[in-house]
Every structure is written in structure tokens, then in C-alpha cells.
């Protein structure tokens, strides 16, 4: 499986770019999965549902399954957060896994950047960032794309990972 990341600071346009990339690549017949890092507590379950009750009662893992999808929730319960490598090993095989976040890890990435955030670019200090997608003009030693040029960005990613 090939992997490629989308990184950037909060409100830089990462999630919108991820969504557009998944749609574009999927429409080309490329199987794509995503991994998203959250810096906060999140819940995919709903209070009052059986699975929520199992988990809050102390279950380490709860697997939900239906005819449409299945989901496995794992409570860390004072364990360390798994590494990106460990999480990738849990993914089913696809052509490409797009990773949102994990900006300090050593995989190839594109940086999403919006001028309005006021944040500096990560790319100048990170050789794993292969390109930047921005809503403003940038001069850099690597490719720069318009943040909304989804097809061009997708083409770049496919070429970079060899698909």
C-alpha cells in the first residue's frame, strides 16, 4: 500500500482537501482509505446505545457490525497512543492511504496552507513535505498548487507514490 499525507495547521484546509482528493481518486478507480489524527478526545459512539454502554462499562474493544459497515473501537485505558506505523498495519489493503495529520512523521506529505490563519509554512523546515497547496502565492523550492486544484494535486500525489 502507498501512503501520502496532508498536513498543516488548524483551519488550513486539510479536511476539505482530503475530501476532494478521496472523491477524485475514487472516481478514477483507485481504492483509497484515510487515517485522521485528532488532538482531542473524540467519540464515534452515542450515549445510551448498547455499544456505548459496553465501552463505558469497561470493555477494551467494542466491534459494531451491520450489513452496511463495521467499526472497531478500542479504548486505550492508560496505554500510549499507537504509532502511525501500528495504525497503518491495522488497515485493509488499498491502493492508497491518505493520512491527515501526523505532521512530524516521516512519510511523504503535502502541506495545506491558508493565508488567513497567520501560521508559518511547515515546508521550509520539513523535507518530507513534497509540495504545498495554498490559497495565496508562495515561492518555494518545491511544487506549489492552488488549494482548490484538486485534480492537479491528485496527479502529483499519484506520481510521487508511483501509482
Describe the structure.
The protein is α/β, with parallel strands linked by helices. It has a single domain, classed as Rossmann fold, CATH 3.40.50.300. 24% of the residues lie in helices and 25% in strands. It is built from four helices and eight strands, in the order E-H-E-H-E-E-H-E-E-E-E-H. A six-stranded parallel sheet has the order 2-5-1-6-7-8, with helices on one face. Strands 3-4 form a two-stranded antiparallel ribbon. The radius of gyration is 18 Å and the shape is globular. The mean pLDDT is 93.
Strand composition percent: 15-25%
Order of helices and strands: EHEHEEHEEEEH
How would you state the average pLDDT, rounded? Answer: 93
Query: What composes the largest sheet?
Result: 6 strands, parallel
CATH architecture: 3-Layer(aba) Sandwich
DSSP helix fraction:
10-25%
Q: How many strands in all?
A: 8
Distance between the ends: 10 Å
* Main structural class: alpha/beta
Could you tell me the radius of gyration in angstroms? 18 Å
CATH homologous superfamily descriptor: P-loop containing nucleotide triphosphate hydrolases
The number of helical segments is 4
What is the CATH third-level topology name?
Answer: Rossmann fold
* Major beta sheet, strand line-up: 2-5-1-6-7-8
Q: What gross morphology would you assign?
A: globular
State the low-pLDDT regions, or none: none
Return the domain count: 1
Amino acid at each position: 500500500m502507498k501512503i501520502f499525507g496532508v498536513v498543516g495547521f488548524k483551519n488550513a484546509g486539510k479536511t476539505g482537501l482530503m475530501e476532494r482528493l478521496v472523491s477524485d481518486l475514487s472516481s478514477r478507480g483507485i481504492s483509497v482509505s484515510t487515517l485522521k489524527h485528532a488532538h482531542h478526545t473524540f467519540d464515534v459512539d452515542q450515549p445510551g446505545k448498547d455499544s456505548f454502554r459496553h465501552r463505558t462499562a469497561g470493555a477494551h474493544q467494542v466491534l459494531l457490525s451491520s450489513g452496511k459497515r463495521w467499526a472497531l473501537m478500542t479504548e486505550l485505558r492508560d496505554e500510549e497512543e499507537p504509532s502511525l506505523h501500528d495504525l497503518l498495519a491495522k488497515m485493509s489493503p488499498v491502493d492508497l492511504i491518505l493520512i491527515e495529520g501526523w505532521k512530524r512523521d516521516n512519510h511523504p506529505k503535502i502541506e495545506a496552507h491558508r493565508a488567513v490563519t497567520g501560521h508559518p509554512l511547515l515546508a521550509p523546515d520539513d523535507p518530507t513535505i513534497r509540495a504545498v497547496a495554498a490559497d495565496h502565492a508562495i515561492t518555494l523550492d518545491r511544487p506549489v498548487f492552488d488549494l482548490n486544484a484538486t485534480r492537479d494535486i491528485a496527479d502529483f500525489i499519484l506520481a510521487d507514490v508511483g501509482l
